[in-house]
Amino acid sequence: MNTPTHHYPIGQPGLAWGPEEISQWRARQQRHRSYAQDVLVPLEGLRDRVDLQPYGEVVYGQERYPLVAARSRDWQEGRPVVLVTGGVHGYETSGVHGALRLLERHAADLQGQVNLLVAPCVSPWAYERIHRWNHDAVDPNRSFREPSPSQEAAALMRLVRPWLGQFAAHIDLHETTDTDETEFRPALAARDGKPFEPGSIPDGFYLVDDTENPQPVFQRAIIAAVERVTHIAPANDKGEIIGSPAVDRGVIRYPLKALGLCAGITGAPLTTTTEVYPDSPRVTAEQCNEAQVVAVLAAVAFVRARHA
């Protein structure tokens, strides 16, 4: 993979973007796919298996995106609640389609096991444009705080608020892609007026645990399950994955709440962020979607064992 060494085509080196630069960036973004067709239509087709719960609307000018989550049809008070989120970064495709596949293939089987709440596409504008940021060049996955600068993050926080204190686990479905290094990190450096420092993309699946509430046994259970579907990212010669120390095989840690990350919104005792690598020549899109599903099923099995 070639690492860009030239300056990002928007803004001036050393100067953070203002409204003019953000407008220039937005003008470069093109719609490549349909949130309505890819997400809302499949959700409608699942009404026989789940209850659909509208939880707001993302509005950018004339563009309106209804936000819809899915809930277990047999939701019962006192049963552990498991939250699954996908598409917090809209370009991370298997997060969205993995969440939908989970509902399609396993929602009925999971009835009676846990109260399942799934928000399959948190950032629909970015999903359509295959981008990390929202319309305002804001990263939703650094915006889960009050007050939030992201409509998408604010809506999801409102959705989960009634069940705070009841969540047993939260699995946030993500990808790490080659475009992180070729587009999104250079754009981030330019937006913030900072120099771009080249890095590397790990080849394989890994997880992000919570620095403030590490759960190594939980993470290992997920890694063991996912390894049957796709390969696990090795640490580099510095013992790091994506610039962070590998604390276990295929596991790093971030301070979730301090960084405003989605996986920190529930206060659940068990949290993880999956990171699928779809650009590897060793995997297919099918494997990427299935890895997300397997990660969730392993997490649910862990919750059930803990609450048995």
UniProtKB/TrEMBL annotation:
Domain Peptidase M14: 31-300
Stored PROSITE patterns: PEPTIDASE_M14
Gene3D superfamilies assigned: Zn peptidases (3.40.630.10)
Cofactor: Zn(2+)
Pfam families named among the record's database cross-references: AstE_AspA_cat
Database matches in InterPro entries: AstE_AspA_cat (IPR055438), Peptidase_M14 (IPR000834)
Residues making up the signal peptide according to the UniProt record: none
Keywords on record: Hydrolase, Metal-binding, Zinc
Domain of life the protein comes from: Bacteria
Active-site residues (renumbered): 275
Family: Belongs to the peptidase M14 family.
Name of the featured protein: M14 family metallocarboxypeptidase
Organism the protein comes from: Hydrogenophaga bisanensis
